[in-house]
Amino acid sequence: MTQAEQALIEALYRKEISREEFLAQFPLNVAQHPEYLVQLLRRAYQEQSAEDVDYALMISHLAPGVPVGLTAILGELVVVDWHYMHENIVHWLQALQDPVSIDPLYQAAIEIPDLNCYGNYTIAVQATYALHDIGTEEAKEKLTLLAGSAIPAIRTAATYQLQRLSS
């Protein structure tokens, strides 16, 4: 992403320009071409640009609906450790409720403990909420595995989500 594109996103984020001004000035109108958001995230992934992941997610609300491939690229991003947007990505995946994200959410809960800051395992706990909201049998199986975790915060969160699914 160019510095000019980043500056436009920052101006939109700080409400220095309107949505309409942003869409008119940004290289491709994300509201008319939601697939561009997926392209931005894919490029950020390929270049391992944490900054570009952040910028792309900052304009994600401009894309109407769910662009094809969004769940897949978010699933790829949630399990790598070179960026800092894991919590936002887990929230996105929770909102999308796409069964495609079950394995990445499970992996995020168990494989990136360094990102679960201060021992509270925020990302892992949020992943249990996302798995609950997906609610398929496969999601329940992953919650059952997480309920057997040696880490109390993960075990408690997964057990709670399983109980919610049972009631």
- Provide the residue-averaged pLDDT: 92
Distance between the termini: 47 Å
General shape: elongated
Which radius of gyration do the C-alpha atoms yield? 17 Å
Q: Which percent range fits the helix content?
A: 55-70%
Helix/strand order: HHHHHHHHHH
What is the strand content? under 5%
Largest sheet at a glance? none
Protein name: HEAT repeat domain-containing protein
Keywords: Plasmid
Structure, explained:
There is one protein chain. This protein has helices at 3-13, 19-25, 35-47, 50-58, 70-78, 86-96, 102-111, 122-134, 137-147, 152-166. The chain contains 10 helices and no strands. It starts with a helix and ends with a helix. The chain is elongated. The mean pLDDT is 92. It comes from Hymenobacter volaticus. This is HEAT repeat domain-containing protein. Keywords: Plasmid.
Indicate the topology.
Elements: H1 3-13, H2 19-25, H3 35-47, H4 50-58, H5 70-78, H6 86-96, H7 102-111, H8 122-134, H9 137-147, H10 152-166
Helix pairs in contact: 3-4, 3-5, 5-6, 6-8, 7-8, 7-9, 8-9, 8-10, 9-10
Summarize the structure.
With 167 residues, the chain is an all-alpha fold.
